[in-house]
Amino acid sequence: MLNATFSGRANRSQHSFVVNELGEEIVSGAYASGTLLPGDVDLAERFGVSRTVLREAMKTLTAKGMIVPKARIGTRVTDRSNWNLFDADVLVWHIEAGVDATFLKHLTDMRFAIEPFAARLAAERASQEEIAGLYACADAMSRADSDENFALADLKFHLALHGASGNPFMLSVGNLIEAALVTSFKMSSPYGEPGRHVATANRHRMIVEAIERRDGDAAASAMELVIHEGFDRITKKLG
After folding, report:
1. Exposure string (b/e) for 54-80, b if CB count within 10 Å is 16 or more?
2. The CATH number of domain 14-82, selected from 3.40.50.1000, 2.40.50.100, 1.10.10.10, 3.40.50.720
3. Closest CA to 101 of 213, 183, 3, 160
4. pLDDT of the chain along its 239 residues, tens only?
5. What number of other Cβ atoms are within 10 A of residue 195's Cβ?
6. How far apart are CA 181 and CA 107, in angstroms?
7. DSSP string, 104-124
8. Angle, nearest 10°, between helix axes 101-125 and 178-188?
9. Rg of the chain (C-alpha set)
10. pTM of the predicted model as reported, rounded to 2 decimal places
11. Long-range contacts of 41-46, Cβ-Cβ distance < 8 Å, separation of 24 or more
12. Fold designation for 100-238
């Protein structure tokens, strides 16, 4: 999924095309919460697809919590509080619509709730091979020659740490929000600021060093510092 996240979406089927077009329009506000979507006949004609394809696409959006079909009334867009933000498509649509400080603050809040504990678990459970992999990710961050490469190395580090926690739910959460993490890491990348670039890579090495010492408290504290400093860089960029 990493390559797909950075290289863009693959060619879509008719079903995926309809889901993506309507999903993006709903998230962007073209179809606001509470409004009715055009009828099936109109949508099928607009997208040039069969009614069967359209119905399957609508089922997919319903499963994501974004629409509710009502017999003899139509299909209504639900309130944003019903949308599944752990759905990769929904996250990508938010990002493509343009993330703001509130979205990134919510993401950061969740990272604070999860990642320090993942680091603590990794200090207890990580194998030597996993620790070596974390060092390699931190080294890749220090060698990165662009914002994108820095963000990719950063993402690999955090996903590897989730895996090193020994808790499959931790890794699943990281994979689910991968697109949001990529956006956050690109925005917080210190590439182009040599001193900060090296310092950020070293902050990540501090996490690994604490894990290698089996010091859970230090690993969790080092992770909190990384998250805090990253969010500070984002807020400064957003003004």
Report:
1. beebbebbeebbbbeeeeeeebebbeb
2. 1.10.10.10
3. 183
4. 454 455 445 447 999 999 999 999 999 999 999 999 999 999 999 999 999 999 999 999 999 999 999 988 999 999 999 999 888 899 889 888 888 888 889 989 999 999 999 999 999 999 999 999 999 999 999 999 888 888 899 999 999 999 999 999 998 888 878 878 888 888 788 877 777 888 999 999 999 999 999 999 999 999 999 999 999 988 887 77
5. 8
6. 8
7. HHHHHHHHHHHHHHHHHHHHH
8. 100
9. 20
10. 0.81
11. 43/18
12. Four Helix Bundle (Hemerythrin (Met), subunit A) (1.20.120)
Query: Would you kindly state where each structural domain of the chain is located, as residue ranges?
Result: 14-82, 100-238
Burial class (CB in 10 A: 0-12, 13-18, 19+), 32: exposed
Q: Mapping DSSP to helix (H, G, I), strand (E, B) and coil, where does residue 76 land?
A: strand
Q: What is the DSSP letter of 35?
A: P
Enumerate the β-bridge partners of residue 112.
Answer: none
Q: What is the largest CA-CA distance in the chain?
A: 64
